[in-house]
Amino acid sequence: MRHLLLDTGSSSTRGGLLGGTILLLLLFLPSAASAQTPEAVQVEAETIVYDQSTQRLEATGNVRLRYKGITLYAAEAVFDVALEHLTARGGVRLIDAQGRELRGEALSYDLRLGLLDIQRAQTIVDRLYVSSERIQGTARRLTAQGATATTCDPVRRAYRITAREIELIPGDRLTARHASVWLGPVRLLTLPVLRMSLRSGEETARSLPRAGYSSAEGLWIDYLYYYDAGSLRGGLYTKYAAGLGLIPRNFLRYETPAFAAELTVGRNQDVNSRVYDLAEVTAGIPLRRVGSSMLHLGGSVGTGWFREPATTLETARSFAQIDLSVPSASVGALTTLTGTMAYRYAWYGTGATMATAQGSVSLTHRLSERTSFILSYRVLDVVSGATPFLFDTIPADDLVNEATAFFTRSGLRLGRLETTVFGGVAYDFRTTSPSLVAGFSGRDDPRLALTLSGSYNLKLSEFKVTLDTGVQIGLGSRVSVFTVYNTRTGAFEEFDYGIAARLCDCFQVVLKYRQARQEFWLEVGLAPNPTMRFPNGSAP
């Protein structure tokens, strides 16, 4: 490769190398009246022409241009340095400062204003592939005309969305207008407006209908439709279950970094598939640091009207909650404190009240590079009172109020597993029972996670073995098992398993069973492709 440093004193500079590449580096120095930092343009091409008088650069043949955090690949490109305007043709690939990539046949890009226009375009944003005859916009908002979008492999699209126009706000949402959803060659539905959340993979998955079966609900199908109402973000959730009937619910949410409020009206269901009706408004302040201390403080309040068909009870419920958090704080050179705690007080129109506490706190003292002493406390308990509603009751199996003191040693190898061995004592405040505990946990990311432990209850003379494991069985597919076996009774107190397997690269089937509640359910829904690639196989 030959390198050429442009002589900006000449009116025209040309460089060329048959069968090779020439690198052109332009340094644009600020004027005496300017305090801006000098910018640099780096260009590689087979032929480069730069006209000093017009400040116009032309490059052809395997062009690669870098400027202000962007990288452009094309067959030919023209860059107006004075106007900071870039045009390119032929196999265009533009990688912006955020690492997002757009491809197309022709590009026009005003870097000063951040405006781009790309023809016969395709892009990947938040694991969503979009192709269009034309994409316009900025790094914060893109608009695609006559577009197709999918979270599947673009070559083998199990489903796709076609629309007259698609608006993309990276990290937030997709809005498709005059949109149709296709499953293979079959059009499932057409909507005036369809929205998909891009805030997380979980929210994206909820943007299309899901279906399933459970022993309590029977066959069911649900759909969460996101929409905007001025500055409010809304969602209309609709579910139909053969055993429960129609469950519609709507929410409107107003959110700023310092405050959030939400209004929810409709029907909901609890973990035991009991339905109840509600009209509730809540407001909250997220966790924020208190001065220069290690403590973060937040809270929420709410009030509403609830009706529970199972008990025929209909009354108001209000609550206030305080949230405390210590994300990570040093207590001396070798000791770290972490934890979250929440205290909630609820009062009801019947005169009943209920106070609950939930959280965990951990104090870790490092004895050596691999050995630590950990004192911890976790709680999910009813402090006082009781709720008159069934849906508001905390299941007895979920209640916990326990302190532990463990020694741990990490960095040990067991085959391919990197393990941590632990042992110590535990005390259950609910049953006033002390226990001896020992075990180990190991990980072989992302293939296997395993925790095996045993506990001996000194009060009951009872020994229990607990196994908690998850095994990856392919891309996006995993088997998980959680069991508690009581050697005194010779029975499994808990035996839960789950299988999450991909039907293809963007749909997932989930099978779960929980022995304690005799619950079995099957769910099929969208699961965005974790390794989204352009049709030619290259990653973005």
Structure description:
The protein is an all-beta fold and 540 residues long. Helix content is 1%, strand content 69%. It has a 20-stranded antiparallel β-barrel. The chain has a 15-stranded mixed β-sheet that branches. The longest helix has 5 residues. The N terminus is likely disordered.
Secondary-structure blueprint of this entry?
Layout lengths: L1 E4 L6 E5 L5 E7 L10 E7 L1 E5 L4 E12 L2 E11 L4 E11 L5 E10 L4 E11 L2 E10 L4 E9 L8 E11 L3 E11 L2 E12 L3 H5 L4 E5 L3 E12 L2 E10 L3 E12 L2 E11 L5 E15 L6 E13 L4 E18 L4 E14 L4 E14 L4 E15 L14 E15 L2 E12 L4 E12 L3 E10 L4 E13 L2 E10 L4 E12 L4 E8 L4 E8 L14
Parallel strand pairs: 1-3
Antiparallel strand pairs: 2-5, 3-4, 4-6, 5-6, 6-7, 7-8, 8-9, 9-10, 10-11, 11-12, 12-13, 13-14, 14-15, 16-17, 16-35, 17-18, 18-19, 19-20, 20-21, 21-22, 22-23, 23-24, 24-25, 25-26, 26-27, 27-28, 28-29, 29-30, 30-31, 31-32, 32-33, 33-34, 34-35
